[in-house]
Amino acid sequence: VFGLSSVAQVVLGRGDFGQHLSINLGFGIGVTLGIHAAGGISGAHLNAAITLTHCILGNLPWRKLPAYLIGQFLGSFTAAATVFGLYYDALYDYTKGNFTVTGPTATASIFATYPAPYVSLLGAFFTEFTATVMLLLGILIIHDEKNNGALKGTQALLTGILVLGIGLGMGMNTGYAINPSRDLPPRVFTAIAGWGMDVFTAGHHWWWVPLTAPILGSLAGVFIHKLFIDFHNQPVPESGNEKGQPVVENS
């Protein structure tokens, strides 16, 4: 809701009610609050690529995968419907009732991601892959208690800042979906709500890239973290006060 509504405000407000930064802040805030809302209950699996990665690594039973994916799908679909209702009048004023995916008054990008006209499909795929690698690396580092992990209670905020950073640096080419659960359900909603099947054919049938590239990027992020960080981690001794530092006991 925070992310999509921030995009709607920038597009429908014709730049008078926000810019690229405000969109990234909206998604960062939404991720932070989502983690606080669901972290203690389900681990805050807001991303299907991350959930599937946990199943592949054996951190999550496969039998739980459908429940997580259904929850993510319903949450994202409902968010799109909520933003559609919130900005229904503005949408009609902006488009004169003609909902389009491309063109001067295109509005489908409010809800789902689409590649920029200058980006090749391969370049767009690589963008989504790389952005998701950075997302996974960041999340793993934030929660890495064997290394220099984040202070307890700050993980949600730092993850939101991580998403903000990805958007600020890697959002121009594709809108940084980095999450199948964030992209596909709103795309399905727009197909139903008046934009039609163009949402699946636009951008050289772009729709499948936000589903596959984040999954591969998530797995690659885990591999890179394992290879270059986790294998070299030394657990903090229980009697030590700092990693790699001798313990001095005072009588």
UniProtKB/TrEMBL annotation:
<dbReference type="InterPro" id="IPR023271">
    <property type="entry name" value="Aquaporin-like"/>
</dbReference>
<dbReference type="GO" id="GO:0015254">
    <property type="term" value="F:glycerol channel activity"/>
</dbReference>
<dbReference type="GO" id="GO:0015250">
    <property type="term" value="F:water channel activity"/>
</dbReference>
<keyword id="KW-1133">Transmembrane helix</keyword>
<keyword id="KW-0812">Transmembrane</keyword>
<feature type="transmembrane region" description="Helical">
    <location>
        <begin position="118"/>
        <end position="142"/>
    </location>
</feature>
<dbReference type="InterPro" id="IPR000425">
    <property type="entry name" value="MIP"/>
</dbReference>
<feature type="transmembrane region" description="Helical">
    <location>
        <begin position="154"/>
        <end position="178"/>
    </location>
</feature>
<feature type="transmembrane region" description="Helical">
    <location>
        <begin position="67"/>
        <end position="88"/>
    </location>
</feature>
<protein>
    <submittedName>
        <fullName>AQP7 protein</fullName>
    </submittedName>
</protein>
<dbReference type="GO" id="GO:0015204">
    <property type="term" value="F:urea transmembrane transporter activity"/>
</dbReference>
<dbReference type="Pfam" id="PF00230">
    <property type="entry name" value="MIP"/>
</dbReference>
<dbReference type="InterPro" id="IPR050363">
    <property type="entry name" value="MIP/Aquaporin"/>
</dbReference>
<feature type="transmembrane region" description="Helical">
    <location>
        <begin position="205"/>
        <end position="224"/>
    </location>
</feature>
<keyword id="KW-0472">Membrane</keyword>
<dbReference type="GO" id="GO:0016323">
    <property type="term" value="C:basolateral plasma membrane"/>
</dbReference>
<keyword id="KW-0813">Transport</keyword>
<comment type="similarity">
    <text>Belongs to the MIP/aquaporin (TC 1.A.8) family.</text>
</comment>
